[in-house]
From TrEMBL:
The chain crosses the membrane at residues 43-65. InterPro entries: 5peptide_repeat, Pentapeptide-BTB/POZ_domain. This is Pentapeptide repeat-containing protein. It comes from Rotaria sordida. Keywords: Membrane, Transmembrane, Transmembrane helix. It comes from the Eukaryota. PANTHER family: BTB_POZ DOMAIN-CONTAINING PROTEIN KCTD9.
Length: 323
C-alpha cells in the first residue's frame, strides 16, 4: 500500500516547504525533490493564478450589476424627465389655448359693442348671442380667467344692476370657485373701492369668494352659493332670494336691508343680530335648521319657540296668524 507521510504541525510552522502526496498509489513516497512535491510559494503562485480570474470574474459581475442598476436608474430618470417635459408642455399648451380663448372672447364682444355704440338693443338677438358665447367660454376657462370675464362684463355694464341697458343673463353660468375678493394688501382700504352692483342671478358660485367687497344692491337671487365667502362684505340691499347659501361664511358681513326670502341658510353662520337688520327672510331655511314664517321674526332662534305652543300651523310649521 502506498504510504502517506503526515506533516507535523511544528515542522510546518518552521519550514518553507512541505510534502504533497500524489494520488497515484503506485508512486513512491513523495519527497521535497520528487515530481509531485511543491513548495508553499509554488502553491501560493497557483492559488494566485486561480484567484486572479476568479476575482476578476466577481468584480466584473459586481460592476455589471452596478452598471445595470445605474442604467435602470438613469432610464427611470429619463422617463421621469420626459414625463415632466410632456406635462409641462401640455400645461403650457393648455394655458396658451385658454389665453387664446379669453383673448378671442374679449375681442369679439368688444367689436360687437363698438359696432352698436357700446350698447345692446333690447329687442335684438345680440344679448342672447353674447350670453351663449359667454357661457360657452366660461366652461373652457380657469377661475382666474373667469374673473377677468366677469370684470369685463361688469365694466362694460353688461351685468351691472340698475343700469339703462338690460344686463346679460348669466343663469346657469359656471362660476364655481370664482375669487372676486379683494387681495389682502388692499383689504384695509376696501371702503374706497367702487361698489360692485353686480347681476349674477341664477349663476353657480359654489366655493366662490367676495370677501371685503362692497356689493350694495347686487343680485344673487337663485344662485348656488354653497361654501361661499362673504367675510367683511357689504351686502346692503343685496337680493339673495331663493339662493342656496348653505355653509356660507357671513363673518362681519353687513346685510342691512338685504333680501333672504326663501333662501337656504342651513349651516351658514349668519347671526340673529345680522338677520334682524335684513329687509326680509320670510320662509327662509335658517342657520339653526328651522324655517322662518311668512312674516319675519326678529331672531331666527325664536322661530321654534313662537310655533311650539300651537297645533295648528301653516305648511311652513308656523301659525297662519303670523302673517
Amino acid at each position: 500500500m502506498t504510504s502517506q507521510h503526515a506533516v507535523p504541525v511544528d515542522w510546518f510552522m518552521n519550514t518553507k516547504s512541505f510534502t504533497v502526496v500524489c494520488p497515484n498509489h503506485h508512486a513512491e513516497p513523495a519527497t521535497i525533490s520528487s515530481f509531485c512535491s511543491m513548495q508553499l510559494k509554488d502553491i501560493l503562485k497557483i492559488l494566485g493564478v486561480l484567484l486572479v480570474p476568479l476575482t476578476l470574474g466577481v468584480a466584473t459581475t459586481v460592476l455589471s450589476m452596478q452598471k445595470t442598476h445605474l442604467s435602470q436608474e438613469n432610464r427611470q430618470k429619463d422617463i421621469d424627465i420626459a414625463q415632466q417635459q410632456r406635462q409641462q408642455g401640455a400645461y403650457l399648451a393648455d394655458q396658451a389655448e385658454k389665453e387664446r380663448i379669453l383673448a378671442t372672447y374679449l375681442y369679439d364682444i368688444s367689436m360687437l359693442l363698438l359696432s352698436n355704440n357700446g350698447t345692446l338693443d333690447k329687442g335684438s338677438i345680440i344679448p342672447s348671442v353674447v350670453r351663449a358665447k359667454t357661457l360657452t367660454t366660461l366652461l373652457q376657462l380657469d377661475t382666474q380667467r373667469k374673473r377677468q370675464i366677469i370684470l369685463f362684463l361688469y365694466e362694460t355694464k353688461l351685468i351691472m344692476r340698475n343700469n339703462e341697458q338690460p344686463p346679460i343673463n348669466l343663469v346657469d353660468a359656471d362660476l364655481d370657485n370664482l375669487d372676486m375678493g379683494l387681495p389682502k394688501s388692499k383689504q384695509k382700504l376696501y371702503k374706497i373701492y367702487e361698489v360692485l352692483q353686480i347681476q349674477l342671478h341664477g349663476a353657480s358660485l359654489v366655493n366662490s369668494s367676495f370677501a371685503w367687497r362692497r356689493l350694495d344692491f347686487s343680485d344673487f337671487s337663485q344662485t348656488y352659493l354653497t361654501n361661499a365667502d362673504f367675510t367683511w362684505t357689504d351686502l346692503s340691499h343685496v337680493d339673495f332670494s331663493y339662493a342656496l347659501l348653505s355653509k356660507t361664511d357671513f363673518t362681519n358681513a353687513t346685510v342691512s336691508k338685504a333680501i333672504f326670502a326663501y333662501a337656504n341658510l342651513s349651516g351658514s353662520n349668519l347671526s340673529d343680530e345680522q338677520l334682524s337688520t335684513t329687509l326680509t327672510f320670510q320662509s327662509a331655511l335658517l342657520p339653526n335648521g328651522t324655517t322662518a314664517p311668512l312674516k319675519n321674526l326678529v331672531k331666527n332662534g325664536d322661530a321654534e319657540e313662537t310655533c311650539s305652543n300651537t297645533s295648528t300651523g301653516s305648511p311652513l310649521g308656523c301659525p297662519l296668524d303670523l302673517q
